[in-house]
C-alpha cells in the first residue's frame, strides 16, 4: 500500500494487492515445524485414504505427485513449487493423516544414485526467478 493511502483515513484500509498472496504459514495452518524428520532424500508414497481428509490444492498436488511411485521430499517440493521447509510441514501433516507413508529402503526402493539423479533433474527443471522478484 502506498504511503499516501496509509495516512489517508478516507482511503481503503487495505487493497486487493494486500490480499493476493497469503503467507505460506496459511498453507500449514500456522504450523512451522514438521512433526516428522524428513530429509530431502526421504521417499514417500501416497496411500488410498479416500476423502477422509480435507485437502487444499497444494496438499492435493503433493498426494498426486506421490501416487503410484515413491517420490523424494525434494522432488515433491520442486513439483508443487512450495519452499522445502513448508513442504516438509505439509508432508508431515499428510503422514499424520495416513495419506502418505515413508518408503523403507529395500529391494523395491530405487537405488540411491537413481534417486539423487531424479532429484537433480527436478531441481534443474525448476523455473529460475530473479532474486529481486521474490
Give a written overview of the molecule.
With 134 residues, the chain is mainly alpha-helical. Helices cover 37% and strands 7% of the residues. The protein is built from five helices and three strands. The protein has a three-stranded antiparallel beta sheet with strand order 2-1-3. The longest helix is centred in the C-terminal third of the chain and has 13 residues, at 84-96.
Topology order in helix (H) and strand (E) letters: HEHEHHEH
How many individual helices?
5
The CATH superfamily of the domain at 38-126 is: Winged helix-like DNA-binding domain superfamily/Winged helix DNA-binding domain
* Radius of gyration of CA atoms, rounded to a whole number: 19 Å
Extract low-pLDDT stretches. Answer: none
What profile does the largest beta sheet have?
3 strands, antiparallel
Q: Bin the strand percentage.
A: 5-15%
CATH class of the domain at 38-126: Mainly Alpha
Shape: globular
Instruction: Examine the coordinates and then state which fold CATH places here, giving the name of the CATH topology of the domain at 38-126.
Output: Arc Repressor Mutant, subunit A
Number of beta strands: 3
Query: Quaternary arrangement of the chains shown?
Result: single chain
Q: Report strand order across the widest sheet.
A: 2-1-3
Portion of residues within helices? 25-40%
Q: How far is the N terminus from the C terminus?
A: 17 Å
Question: Can you give me a brief rundown of this structure?
Answer:
The chain is mostly helical and 134 residues long.
Give the helix/strand layout.
Layout: H1 3-7, E1 43-46, H2 57-66, E2 71-72, H3 73-80, H4 84-96, E3 100-102, H5 112-124
Antiparallel strand pairs: 1-2, 1-3
Helix pairs in contact: 2-3, 3-4, 3-5
Amino acid at each position: 500500500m502506498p504511503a499516501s493511502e496509509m495516512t489517508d483515513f478516507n482511503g481503503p484500509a487495505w487493497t486487493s494487492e494486500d490480499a493476493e498472496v497469503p503467507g505460506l504459514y496459511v498453507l500449514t495452518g500456522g504450523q512451522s515445524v514438521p512433526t516428522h524428520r524428513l530429509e530431502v532424500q526421504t521417499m514417500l508414497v501416497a496411500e488410498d485414504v479416500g476423502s477422509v481428509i480435507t485437502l487444499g490444492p497444494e496438499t492435493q498436488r503433493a498426494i498426486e505427485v506421490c501416487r503410484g511411485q515413491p517420490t523424494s521430499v525434494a522432488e515433491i517440493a520442486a513439483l508443487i513449487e512450495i519452499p522445502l521447509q513448508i513442504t516438509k510441514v505439509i508432508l508431515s501433516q499428510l503422514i499424520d493423516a495416513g495419506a502418505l507413508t515413508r518408503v523403507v529402503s529395500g529391494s523395491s526402493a530405487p537405488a540411491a544414485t537413481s534417486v539423487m539423479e531424479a532429484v537433480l533433474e527436478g531441481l534443474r527443471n525448476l523455473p529460475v526467478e530473479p532474486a529481486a522478484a521474490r
